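Example 3.
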Amino acid sequence: MGITPQEYKQLQNRLSGSRRTAAPVLAPSASASARSTVIILGIDPSLRGTGYGIIRVEKPAPRALAYGKIHCPEGWQRSRCLANISQTLRELLKQHNPGVCAIEGLFFAQNLQTALIMGEARGAALAAIAEAGIEIYEVAPRKVKQAIVGYGAAQKIAVAKMVQRMLRLVDLPEPDAADALALALSYSQGQGRYSLSQPKRV
Amino acid sequence: MGITPQEYKQLQNRLSGSRRTAAPVLAPSASASARSTVIILGIDPSLRGTGYGIIRVEKPAPRALAYGKIHCPEGWQRSRCLANISQTLRELLKQHNPGVCAIEGLFFAQNLQTALIMGEARGAALAAIAEAGIEIYEVAPRKVKQAIVGYGAAQKIAVAKMVQRMLRLVDLPEPDAADALALALSYSQGQGRYSLSQPKRV
């Protein structure tokens, strides 16, 4: 998977400190600085590979506490995958105690069957998270890309590279984890006092 | 909601002990009698009103242990409903300890958004049930109606009336609970050695 020239330019602009992105992407705004220790879980549920990322909003930069993929092999029955998603998330919540969760909002599904299966994975994840008393917010995919890469139709690799840079990760995170980290990061930005598009609580 | 003349005739035939239904609907077959104490959970998940029904396969007739609807008011956030579905089911499982669960298989959703929301409710339910180590089987809606009313396109009221009769309930169960009880009953029939359509494990 490559990167388009347009995305490359956007990315370069972001990274080179041009006028538009002179301020650090996660510069704490007035309201964000008041709660600078907030821990955010980003989650990108799917039946076979749910991405998750937990960040702590710190100065001078946010820090990744945990990220990865809840892998459920093709041979597993659907219900076993759903149980695994719930269980793994519950352990992560216990370990890192996030105060808020960001999940993808409106998204594209190819057909009803796909939507149903994606929905099941989301339901297994959201139930575990909501049972822990964590507030859940939906962020539209385009908003995530706009917030992270500055370009709503950015490719996955561009998102992953920017996430790596923002969180100062040694290695490029794998796509599912990167998307989840991007959700957490973009949620933390949406919390700023000048934010135009507040995430929707679900 | 009424009952069509065709359904009424089917129902009458079923109830009057005509040739086709001379045997009790749940007559234990060789394999069923070997596990006559099996407890079956039927579940019909939806965000605002998940129907559930738990039956024990006994002689001379199956018995309803618990049934009802997990009600989530319109004002509740989606995530709160999902948490409520998981929690309520977990309590029911602890109380009645079913060995197996029957859920609707292929079903109709009007659009992607509906499928997603239905999927979320299913995921919240299935994760809780699978985490308890309970085997889950899908039964197609038409198979349920065929098994209970003897007619694949039967209306809800016909299903509820037959369920009431089979389980010797004093009152007509409400539609969501009746559908769940019907799932459990049809699963118990599908276990017979001469069954043509085994439910699909998920």
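Confidence is low (pLDDT under 50) at residues 17-36 of chain B. Chain B touches chain A through 32 residues (CB under 8 Å).
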